[in-house]
Design goal:
alpha+beta
């Protein structure tokens, strides 16, 4: 084979990779304008939103709420000094913390998975009645974080991607269709990741991912 033909073959082989790289968009170009603040929310502001004690300290669930609040405070404090992301691919156990101004609840671990994609990663919580799935995209302004742009669904209905056709972020999950969900992923321990999602003036949700 001539040198010219060899060069042409190499260029043809490289073309798909170049095209894929050119198709990857900055996370801000993917995110709806209304959802960008949730991706960039300050962890100290979220910690300040949480009460020291649940609104009803005499509730039969008070001890569970106190533990959830303490764990959420600890995770947010660690999120203020995130570790390098490293290799996040593979199987994870995912616990959920739903937090608000009056208190919060934690839910047990269910299975999740992170896969590599041409433009970043894809996260999916594969068990539990309430699930999330979506893209994890690089944040050029924060090399230790990935923007999460996905959907929240009920009963595993994860067929639609993030976008303007879904129910807006902040609305309750609905069996009829996906609700947009936005946030970011950080590493807060050697075997622990944290996803901060759907932050608003009233509350937010945390996913704790453990190996």
């Amino acid at each position: 084979m001539s040198l010219r033909n060899s060069m042409l073959c190499l260029m043809m082989l490289a073309a798909p990779a170049v095209a894929s790289a050119q198709e990857c968009r900055n996370w801000k170009a993917v995110a709806l304008a209304s959802d960008r603040p949730s991706v960039q929310v300050d962890v100290n502001a979220l910690a300040g939103l949480l009460p020291a004690q649940p609104a009803d300290p005499d509730s039969e669930y008070a001890n569970d709420e106190i533990r959830a609040l303490e764990e959420a405070h600890d995770m947010l404090q660690r999120a203020g000094h995130p570790l390098p992301l490293g290799d996040i691919r593979g199987v994870w156990r995912v616990a959920s913390y739903q937090m608000g101004r009056t208190g919060g609840y934690s839910y047990p671990y269910f299975a999740g998975h992170i896969d590599r994609t041409p433009c970043g990663y894809r996260f999916i919580k594969t068990q539990g009645s309430q699930r999330r799935s979506g893209a994890l995209l690089p944040m050029q302004e924060n090399g230790r974080a990935l923007a999460f742009l996905g959907v929240a669904t009920v009963n595993g209905n994860t067929s639609k991607p993030y976008g303007p056709a879904n129910r807006p972020m902040g609305l309750p999950m609905d069996p009829e269709g996906p609700t947009n969900s936005a946030g970011r992923l950080l590493r807060i321990g050697p075997d622990t990741l944290l996803m901060i999602m759907d932050a608003s003036d009233d509350g937010f949700e945390l996913y704790r991912l453990e190996r």
